[in-house]
Design brief:
alpha+beta, 4-stranded antiparallel sheet, 3 helices, elongated
Length: 136
């Protein structure tokens, strides 16, 4: 149970973990595992539980109307998703990204755009308070 939505932790495969993301597709799992493993976190990945499905309302059919046997709804397959966590249960994704605590393998600081995979290369942004040229 988390104190707030930004700091979740739970047991994954019997290990208490800080949750990085839930309902993650396989391609994103690979991305997160590479980044977190490079930053010396032990990553735990488990399949997400299937979403709760609400049964469709039952419509009563009159005796004279018969529905064909082929009118049964086809089962809906949910996409396979995963829950990604790290064994450091104090890990907080927001603090790690905005605190500039995570690095890429080539030494750049991970930015929010890179974390969300909007950019393929992490471009270090100099904070306004460290940019000497902004004071001129």
């Amino acid at each position: 149970m988390a104190i707030n939505k930004n700091h979740e932790f739970e047991e994954l495969d019997g290990i208490k973990c800080g949750i990085v993301e839930k309902n993650v597709p396989p391609a994103r799992v690979d991305f997160l595992k590479k980044i977190l493993a490079f930053n010396k976190f032990t990553v735990v990945v488990v399949p997400s539980p299937p979403p709760k499905v609400v049964a469709p309302p039952v419509v009563k059919v009159a005796e004279s109307e018969e529905t064909p046997a082929s009118a049964e709804p086809a089962p809906v397959s949910s996409p396979e998703t995963f829950t990604v966590g790290v064994t450091d249960y104090t890990f907080n994704t927001i603090n790690a990204v905005f605190g500039r605590l995570l690095k890429t393998p080539d030494g750049h600081v991970i930015t929010l755009a890179f974390w969300k995979q909007h950019e393929t290369v992490s471009q270090d942004e100099i904070p306004y308070y460290e940019d000497i040229n902004s004071f001129k």
